[in-house]
Amino acid sequence: MTIRLGDIAPDFTQDSSEGIINFYDFLGDSWGILFSHPADYTPVCTTELGFTAKLKDEFSKRGVKAIALSVDDVESHKGWIQDINTTQNTTVNFPIIADQDRKVSTLYDFIHPNASETLTVRSLVIIDPNKKVRLIITYPASTGRNFHEILRVVDSLQLTDNHKVATPANWQHGDEVVIVPSLKDEEEIKQRFPKGYKTVTPYLRLTPQPETK
Ligand code: BEZ
């Protein structure tokens, strides 16, 4: 199945390192990050999962729950978690789905047969509290993901959901943002952006980042 931005994220029930998980129950009203990795006991994945564990407070601040997935079994996940904890000096604090029958991988298109017939690729999906898919990325097995970038996207999504703005290239929390081109009414712009704004071109208007909730 192909998943696209704006689709409702499919629900599933599957075994994990923390027991059987129903995805929607796990998410509750939170944002979610579901990410697949090719295999347990592999070096890049070890660093990715360790780093994700270290970002727990950053995810919590944003109301995000992380959950990982590979096609290895629960016993493998549990043994590998001990290695991750030791080698990455952390404690894995999120479940790893044991998708041996590839049920979830198929639902989320995590197996790309021309990359590997059997292993999941390095994909990541951000899901909002309405269960809508808001970001999909896929990296090759040889390239570890940048989880600072994932946090940056969450910040952008949460900001732009609440204000009529979008975030420009390389934006970081606190930087100027752009006013959405569809907002044209001068009075409304002044009301929404009391800190003022600059018009670079009629379609590129910059304003200080509005207060986040
Ligand atoms: C890794 O996580 O290190 C890895 C996994 C599959 C292929 C290459 C590297």
From TrEMBL:
Domain annotation Thioredoxin: ranges? 3-159
Q: Which GO terms describe its molecular function?
A: peroxiredoxin activity
Q: Which CDD domains match?
A: PRX_1cys
Q: Where is the active site?
A: C45 (cysteine sulfenic acid (-soh) intermediate)
- Repressor found in the keyword field: no
**InterPro entries linked:** AhpC/TSA, Peroxiredoxin_AhpC-typ, Peroxiredoxin_C, PRX_1cys, Thioredoxin-like_sf, Thioredoxin_domain
Q: Which domain of life is it from?
A: Bacteria
Single GO cellular component term: cytosol
Gene3D superfamilies referenced in this protein's UniProt entry, alphabetically: Antioxidant, Horf6, Chain A, domain2 (3.30.1020.10), Glutaredoxin (3.40.30.10)
Q: Is Oxidoreductase given among the entry's keywords?
A: yes
Question: Which UniProt keywords are present, listed alphabetically?
Answer: Antioxidant, Oxidoreductase, Peroxidase, Redox-active center
Q: Which Pfam families match?
A: 1-cysPrx_C, AhpC-TSA
**Which processes are annotated in GO (biological process)?**
cell redox homeostasis
PANTHER family listed in its UniProt record: MCG48959-RELATED, PEROXIREDOXIN-6
Q: Which family does it belong to?
A: Belongs to the peroxiredoxin family. Prx6 subfamily.
What NCBIfam families would the database entry show?
PRK13189.1
Mind telling me what this protein is named?
Peroxidase
The organism of origin for this protein: Acinetobacter gandensis
